[in-house]
Amino acid sequence: MSMTETDIGKCNLSIIIPTYNEAENIPELIHRIEKSLIGVDFEIIIVDDNSPDRTADIAQKLGEEYLNIKVIKRKGKLGLASAVLEGMKFADGKFIAIMDADLQHPPELLPLMLEKAYKGYDLVIASRYIEGGSIERWSFSRRIISIGAILFAHMLFPKIKNVKDPTSGFFMFKRDIIENIHLDPLGFKILLEILVKGSYHSVVEVPYLFRERRKGKSKLNLKEIMNYAVHLLKLRMSR
């Protein structure tokens, strides 16, 4: 792994973004984050799995402009879960946000999420399944897979039954809720791991529109669905 970063001190918010072949999306995403969080002390941590399309190089160039971007370039395609954990090692923020690079998660929601965190919520989840939330142009089969994944999570872990969107990929949390907790997620459902294992007291969900990917290729495939099933079993056995 190689890493380049600007000279950044402690900050309030660390935004971790795992990437693989997101060169088409990363400039717009970073510009929108920077615009949305004017006046906030934050950093962006890009964890790139050696993207052939040079996503990391583009992010590093943007780092020269904004001076609050860390880029971690890994040796190969090691997966989203490990990328998030890698990013956490370099995060300085009191709060940590996780989001995708494909523009399906609106950066404009970050200020509201941070406001909720400041008000004392340990975990703030951007939700597709509470009032006001929705999904843009999903096929019937994709909706069934998503709803089924949530139902299974609720059945196996009663602790999280009141969380409407435990499989969301867009969330924010106080970093101390995972201190001394061993996280070992499989696939891309990091939130589920934190919900089951984390040491938290209060959770809030905020609605958002999950948009259709405009550029690049979706990472969801049969392998990821199988990883989710295995992840559920691992979590259940560990409890």
How would you portray this structure in words?
The protein is α/β, with parallel strands linked by helices. The protein has a single domain (2-238), classed as Spore Coat Polysaccharide Biosynthesis Protein SpsA, Chain A (Alpha-Beta Complex), CATH 3.90.550.10. It has seven helices and ten strands. The strands form two sheets. It has an eight-stranded mixed beta sheet. Helix 1 (26-36) links the parallel strand 2 (13-19) and strand 3 (42-48). Helix 1 (26-36) runs parallel beside helix 2 (55-66) and helix 5 packs parallel to helix 7. The longest helix has 17 residues, at 140-156. The chain is globular, with a radius of gyration of 17 Å. The two termini are 33 Å apart.
What distinguishing features does this structure have?
Spore Coat Polysaccharide Biosynthesis Protein SpsA, Chain A, 10 strands, eight-stranded mixed β-sheet, 239 residues, two-stranded parallel sheet, 7 helices, 35% helix, globular, alpha/beta
